[in-house]
Design a protein that fits this description.
The protein is of the alpha/beta class and 232 residues long. Helix content is 43%, strand content 21%. The strands form 3 sheets. A 5-stranded parallel beta sheet has the order 2-1-3-4-5, sandwiched between helices. Strands 6-7-8-9 form a 4-stranded antiparallel beta sheet, covered by helices on one side. It has a 3-stranded antiparallel beta sheet with strand order 10-12-11. The termini are far apart.
């Protein structure tokens, strides 16, 4: 497995490179955002570890550029630990957020969890090659080819966004709580943190709704959770 590590603190970078190498990961390191983008464009990676406060091109912009062309798992590692920072990072496409200072064992656990989810999704998509195409209004989801079309135009979704949309479209009459969505999409125990679900729902609405403030596809059922709209 190949990991791109973007970190300008040489001590932290060296520590993570050495530790992850002993865990049989191949690590490419970048000390600034410009170098990170260049390396990513030249080499396929299984995961990106990204610090936000890096020179030349900041971490948020690096993530935006990666997300424009790839759904690779991105884990932010940052000393900025406010809810607004975490929400912004998740909103721009991060899959996970680790706050400095951290333990290398925590980083390893998060890396393995995110790669496992990513590879499981890929395996599921391959197995579903013969599945039906799901249609809701002008929205079409081809579960076999991992493709989403709106009004005939391709919509680029991350793996988790795709899983949320597919889950709702395959079960159009069911209302899902945030706990259920988290457990089924993240495949992890729900710890009461609503940020991840809220941010992914908001980001998904921005991509598929005509007016995200008045959604027709992903409806909020107040006090419960979310369901597919009647726009079918």
């Amino acid at each position: 497995m190949k990991i791109l590590l973007v970190e300008d603190d040489s001590e932290i970078s060296d520590m993570l490179q050495n530790f992850l190498s002993t865990e049989n990961f191949e690590v490419a390191a970048a000390g600034d955002g410009e170098e990170a983008v260049k390396i990513f464009e030249e080499t396929p990676f299984d995961l990106v570890l990204l610090d936000l406060m890096i020179p030349k091109i900041n971490g948020m912009e690096v993530m935006r550029r990666i997300r424009a062309c790839s759904t690779v798992p991105i884990i932010i590692i940052s000393a900025k630990d406010t809810d607004s920072d975490k929400t912004l990072g998740l909103g721009l496409g991060a899959d996970d957020y680790i706050t400095k200072p951290f333990s290398v064992s925590e980083v390893l656990a998060r890396i393995k969890a995110n790669i496992r989810r990513s590879t499981q999704y890929a395996a599921v998509y391959r197995e579903e090659a013969a599945e039906e195409v799901l249609v809701c209004g002008s929205l079409t989801v081809d579960t076999g080819n991992y493709a989403v079309m709106k009004d005939g135009q391709r919509v680029e979704l991350t793996a988790k966004e795709f899983e949320i949309l597919k889950l709702l479209m395959k079960n159009p009459k069911k209302v899902y709580t945030k706990e259920q969505l988290y457990s089924m999409v993240w495949q992890d125990a729900y710890c009461g943190d609503e940020n991840a679900v809220n941010v992914h729902i908001s980001r998904l609405r921005n991509k598929i709704e005509e007016n995200p403030r008045e959604p027709k596809y992903i409806l909020t059922v107040w006090g419960i959770g979310y369901k597919l709209g009647e726009n079918r």
